[in-house]
Structures are given as C-alpha cells and as structure tokens.
Design goal:
The complex is a heterodimer. Chain A is an alpha+beta fold. Chain A is built from four helices and eight strands. Chain B has one domain: Beta-grasp domain (Ubiquitin-like (UB roll), Roll). In chain B, strands 2-1-5-3-4 form a five-stranded mixed sheet. Chain B is globular. Classes of the chains: A alpha+beta, B alpha+beta.
C-alpha cells in the first residue's frame, strides 16, 4: 500500500516480497493473484531458433503512463484493492523473469480476472519491444494477432498486430 | 508551420539511424506527417513506408492516423509492441 504501482527496471524482482508488500497491510484482502512472464529458450514452440538472449527496449515516460492507465481501468472494471506491475528492460537471458502483474481482492474471481485483463492490455498497448539474439543472428519479435484477440475479449480493440 | 518532436523506437529507430529529431511541419494529422516524412525519401521511406506495420503515439498516448497535430507535439513512430 502506498508504494509505486508501476516499476520499469533493469534489475530482477522478488515475487514473494512484491506480493507481501501488496497485501500485508490490507486485511480486507482474501485473494492475491499474480502472473510472472519469463524468457523462453525457444520462442516458436520448440521448433524455433534457440534464444541466446533478449534485449527489451521501451519508451520511457509513455510506458509508465500507459500501464498506470491500465491499472486505473482495471480498478474501474473489477472489485479489486491494489495492483502492481513490474516490467524489466535491457538484456535478459532464458529463464529470467520479465514481468510481474499482481492484484489483490476479497475473493479470487476478481483478482484472477483483473490480472488477466492487465496482461492482455499490456501485451498490445504498452510500448515495449523485444529483440532476440539467436545463433542465426538478431531479430525483432513479431507481435501476435492472438494477443489482439485476447484484448478483444474485454471489449477493447487493440489494433497492434493486425 | 509547427515544431514537433519526433521519437523513433525499435526497428524504426534502427532504420532511421537515430532515436529522434525535431522538425517543422505543416501536417495537420499524424498520417499527414507520416506521408510528409515518407516523401522526403531515405531513410524515412524505408522506416515508415507503406507496407511497414508502423504504430504511432501522440504525446505518449497511442493514437490513430487522424489524430490532430499541434505545436510542440511529441510524435512517436514504432513497430507493433511486444512486451509482457
């Protein structure tokens, strides 16, 4: 409570400490739902090229504003108490944590939904770009139409990949 | 004419060879500005040209091509986002 809702950082994050800070002092909370995204070793199933490392670029200023607005929208749509998003940028390796989205509520339903909503929103509307380094060279990761479809389920048109 | 701050990210930044610049423009909308830049030739045509999936932000908010431009605006061009 009272801490920042959004952090963009090169440093790793401690999931347990983040969840503790989000819920500890609010005894209305009966449910904490979180999502952690991590770097895969092979992007396209297991048939794609091996990912040696990933470089994450973002748009400083806009990134924070965009995610703050997403949390505001989640607060309007769902009966939740607090939400937190931590997203790393810079050089990451397979197995590294990329993103944390965490939400608290009285009962599980609202925090499950709000957490998924936040991630669907973030995937298509927050200005981050991933570049993978593989044995065949470097390539920017393509946006997925399925991510636009995921946001459409919430009644929001993404228009990112498509 | 109005002065605008241009920002480039990811593959657009690489094609442009820089992260941004200040420009004078008579364009009234984002899409008109993009067309004006493409008409300058390289590297704009390669970075922003037709067939390229380019997304835009106006003053750090995602925007459509018909969003109106004003003096001092910050306009960003970038490929579809891939965070999370």
């Amino acid at each position: 409570m009272g801490g920042p809702r959004v952090s963009i950082q090169t440093a790793d994050f401690d999931v347990a400490a983040e969840l503790e800070a989000l819920r500890r002092h609010d005894h209305r909370v009966g449910a904490v739902c979180s999502f952690v995204g991590t770097v895969r070793k092979a992007n396209e199933g297991n048939n794609g090229p091996q990912v040696l490392s990933m470089e994450l670029e973002h748009y400083p200023g806009m990134t924070e504003k965009a995610i703050e607005a997403m949390i505001d929208e989640a607060q309007r749509r769902f009966d939740i108490f607090a939400a937190r998003v931590v997203h790393r940028v810079g050089l990451l390796l397979p197995g590294d944590q990329i993103v944390l989205a965490a939400v608290t509520s009285s009962h599980r339903g609202q925090s499950f939904q709000a957490c998924e909503f936040l991630m669907d929103y973030l995937k298509t509307q927050a200005p981050f770009w991933k570049k993978e380094r593989t044995p065949q060279g470097e390539q920017w990761v393509d946006a997925r139409v399925s991510d636009d479809a995921a946001l459409a389920r919430w009644g929001i048109r993404a228009g990112n990949a498509g | 004419m109005k002065k605008v701050q241009l920002r480039y990210f990811a593959s657009v930044r690489e094609s442009m060879g820089r992260g941004g610049e200040e420009r004078q423009t008579a364009a009234e909308s984002l899409v008109a500005l993009r067309d004006e830049l493409i008409a300058l030739g390289e590297p704009y045509a390669q970075a922003l040209g037709a067939g390229k999936a380019v997304r835009m932000a106006l003053d750090q908010v995602m925007a459509d091509g018909d969003a109106p431009l004003r003096e001092g605006a910050e306009v960003a061009f970038f490929p579809p986002v891939t965070g999370g």
